[in-house]
Amino acid sequence: xxxxxxxxxxxxxxxxxxxxxxxxxxxGSPQQCAVLGLLLLGRGRPIGLEALVDQVWGxxxxxxxxxxxxxxxxxxxxxxxxxxxxxxxxSGRGGYALPVAAEALDLTVFEDRLAxxxxxxxxxxxxxxxxxxxxxxxxxxxxxxxxxxxxxxERERARLDQxxxxxxEERISVDMDLGRHGEVLVELAGLVIAYPLQERLRExxxxxxxxxxxxxxxxxxxxxxxxxxxRELGIEPGPDLRALHERILRGDPALGLSxxxxxxxxxxxxxxxxxxxxxxxxxxxxxxxIRESAGSRSQTLPDVLAPxxxxxxxxxxxxxxxxxxxxxxxxxxxxxERELFAEALAGGAGGFxxxxxxxxxxxxxxxxxxxxxxxAIAAGRTVLRVxxxxxxxxxxxxxxxxxPALGIPGVVLLIDTFEQxxxxxxxxxxxxxxxxxxxxxxxxxxxxxxxxxxxxxxxWAGALxxxxxxxxxxxxxxxxxxxxxxxxxxxxxxxxxxxxxxxALTLAAEVASRAIDPLAVFTPARDVIESLLAELVGTVPxxxxxxxxxxxxxxHSTTEELLRVVIPNANxxxxxxxxxxxxxxxxxxxxxxxxxxxxxxxxxxxxxxDPTGYTEIHRRVRGYVLSRLxxxxxxxVEAGWTARALRSRxxxxxxxxxxxxxxxxxxxxxxxxxxxxxxxMAGEVRGVESARITAFWLxxxxxAFRIFRHRETGELLxxxxxxxxxxxxxxxxxxxxxxxxxWDYSLAAFNPPRPGEYIAxxxxxxxxxxxxxxxxxxxxxxxxxxxxxxxxxxxxxxxxGLPDPELWQPLMDYLGQIRLPSSPMIDGQATGIxxxxxxxxxxxxxxxxxxxxxxxxxxxxxxx
Length: 864
Prior knowledge:
Helix content is 48%, strand content 12%. The chain is an alpha+beta fold. A hairpin with a 2-residue loop joins strand 21 and strand 22 (829-837). Helix 6 (153-177) runs parallel beside helix 8.
């Protein structure tokens, strides 16, 4: 069924809106609007429930996301009824679809008018094309999908905004065909401010200025955009912009051709004949352009690399000049480090003698050190560089390599890969460096921190500056991806893998920049993982050390106790000390953990080459965690911490268990004044029946309820209940289907509770998923998502009645929770009930898990 345009109209070019019979329809919350927007963008194609959840929330999908989407769809169906008994939103095996007639959706109308305008222009009807383009652009009422909120919204909004910009560019180009050069200049001035890196707009601006007799202004636009592209992205203008610049320089009369003499580009834009390829330009004109460009570029480089007027500007240069230019363009971030070194170069008060850069492999120490060396050259200093791999542990080799530095005033000595000659550290500090000229500077770059002797030696007080080189920040990481040509659509998935780690970013960018499908999600190839492991991890002392490293990568955090349990036949103390000393392993409040990139690379590699070994390591870590949970009888909060100690990557653990605290929600006991709000929230989030059940238990067991309020506003954000039941009560069974199922099963399948014991029943967290920011979900998840695993000596059995049981099933299986056969329907949705017998002692399982691992040299041979 296709929606009749007379009955219903939809808009996504601005706020997501709908009209029926001329009246606007209320579409509900921002995320409900997002679901409608997704269906409309699907153009009648079915979209599965999982795809809807993923597009709206992505990895941050809440526990009840699927149920929430079903609620949105139900509300939209009620808001948009079809004629008769049918629904505008269709459902089937493929998912949900909303077929819409072409004339009923403003986006389709916009695309149709844009296509017709291109046909008219190609036929020489510029006036008709201009009218169609204006009519298309009038459909826009602000940013696309305004008012909608979801994971996909920014991506789709950017895509549609780009489509609108293309139409604007084509309309301006057609207006210029019609001789309206002066009229478009004001509009272009505003557009280039809004889209400073859009070269097509600069072409139009330059051409309009030139046709208005303002050749100098047109050339100034080119100089400005050249400088901007170089500064922001480290690139030169594209061939079309360069070709237009050359033609303006020589006053090409063809730039003033009439519309009839123009050609249409493949993208629908127009250029003067021959301008796309630069045909017809003479060598002299081209040479002038190159000289100007090269001159502008050389001013941004250190004189030693490209001195003004040198042969490097036009032939006669060397490869080192080209390599230096590439390094300049490719370097991003590290502003604070460069400013610190610049102060030392200028001889600022309190300046240091030695800058000691340390950090894990691939974090960019050598790149930063080279950049600082370039800065020193630009400041007129002489730089001598020595690689620790070349001199090793020989003081004689080191002296031969950098001995000339002893006689060069103002020398900058760069010692890279210092971990390879770190045995010379004491000699270097006490003997060699003190003999350097008093205005010398030293840069040391290595994986390890300097020894404590530097800090305890009073003569080096204030003369040594130690700096830990960290990952790039988010903005710098994105800048690196842009500089390497990674499509914007792949940035998110590349960053999800590499974070801000420069080496991982560079390797991933090399693959992603060649992606055939820019809309695909980036996944690291084998060569990327192997390169990372070779650079970041290298070799390890033994197979047992390799196994300890795999355990450290697998666990959320590693302690000596964990290593003792998981690798019982090894020296846990020695292994822990070795791990702790690795440059890519960091210490935290609950143990040690490797850098995220190292962790991910190790896990991906082991899963690929030894899935059995990976499963065995996971089984051991799991046994240790669960033994702590059962034997030490943690509270609910501690149990939550323990569950999060298992890595969620590849495991059936929802993200909410591994999140950090957000600090938004404050947990409180429910008081009588809170009861109306709690009942109202239950009805709003889950439905009328849930509200009735909630009201019943508030009257019966008010102490069982905990609420979460906003720390600043006091708004009720969520609530949870933790019922304690000691005997079967008729009206409780009649009031609550989950309680009825819990008693039925505990009496039939378990031993009935003994005197003094009780069973516990929880319905999980009730919260407004679409209105809860991520930190709220983190706060609640840490405090109350795991009440069913609280260990109390009097607790016989626990039962958790959870909506969307399929989502929870893998985790419940993993944690030893069994699902009851019955799934009562509450508010039209099946509720899964998961049970656990807390009287069973788990030591038998823990004992089984304490068996020795497979021999490391057998189960974990090969690279890390």
